[in-house]
Design brief:
Layout: E1 9-10, E2 22-23, H1 51-66, H2 68-79, E3 88-91, H3 100-112, E4 117-122, H4 125-135, E5 144-149, E6 165-166
Parallel strand pairs: 2-3, 3-4, 4-5, 5-6
Antiparallel strand pairs: 1-2
Length: about 170
C-alpha cells in the first residue's frame, strides 16, 4: 500500500486484482448504524485485522475529517500523476461514505479524473439519495457508479433513482 502524503491507497484486492486501487476506511465505524451485516463483516476479518491495515484505515478517516478537500486532492493527485494510468478506482473495500460532503467530493473527484471509472458500493443510501435530490441525477458524473449494497434480497432499500443493487445470496437458508 503506497503511503501518500497523508492517506494510504491500496493497490491490490483479492477480488478485484492488482490493477484497481482503492481507498479504505474503518468498517463499522463509518457504516450505517445497526447495519445487519456488522456481525459478519468481511472487513473485520483476515488481512483487514493486521495492525498496519487498521491504522491506515483510521488514518484515512482522521485525515478526511481534518482536511476533506486535502483527502480527495491526494486521490486526484494519485490518479493523475502520469506515472501509472489507472482505468478504475474503488471507494471502500472497507468502510462507507462518511457524510454528505464526502459524497459530494466523490463526485468532484470523478469530474477531475474523467479517464477513471469509479465504483462505490454503499449502504448509506440516504446520503446518495440526498445528493441526487439536491444536484440532480444528471449531475452525478457518468464515470462514478454507486451500487446500493443490501444485506439480502429482502432487505428494504430506499432507491428512488434506481441505482443498481447487490446482496449476499445465502446458500444455507
Amino acid at each position: 500500500m503506497p503511503k501518500l502524503k497523508h492517506i494510504t491507497i491500496s493497490l491490490t484486492n483479492s477480488k478485484l486484482g492488482a490493477s484497481i486501487p482503492s481507498i479504505n476506511l474503518p468498517p463499522i465505524l463509518t457504516c450505517r448504524e445497526n447495519c445487519p451485516c456488522s456481525h459478519l463483516c468481511y472487513a473485520t476479518k483476515g488481512n483487514f485485522q493486521y495492525p498496519n491495515v487498521k491504522k491506515s484505515h483510521l488514518d484515512n478517516l482522521a485525515y478526511y475529517k481534518e482536511k476533506p478537500n486535502g483527502y480527495f486532492q491526494e486521490i486526484i493527485d494519485f490518479l493523475s500523476d502520469g506515472l501509472v494510468s489507472y482505468k478504475y478506482f474503488r471507494f471502500h473495500s472497507s468502510g462507507d461514505i462518511v457524510d454528505y460532503k464526502y459524497a459530494s467530493l466523490m463526485c468532484a473527484t470523478a469530474r477531475e479524473c474523467p479517464q477513471v471509472k469509479f465504483l462505490a458500493f454503499t449502504k448509506k443510501y440516504e446520503i446518495v439519495n440526498r445528493l441526487v435530490d439536491e444536484i440532480g441525477i444528471t449531475n452525478i458524473p457518468i464515470n462514478l457508479h454507486f451500487v446500493y449494497s443490501m444485506w439480502d434480497k429482502n432487505y428494504k432499500v430506499e432507491n428512488p433513482y434506481d441505482f443498481p443493487t447487490t446482496w449476499v445470496d445465502f446458500k444455507d437458508k
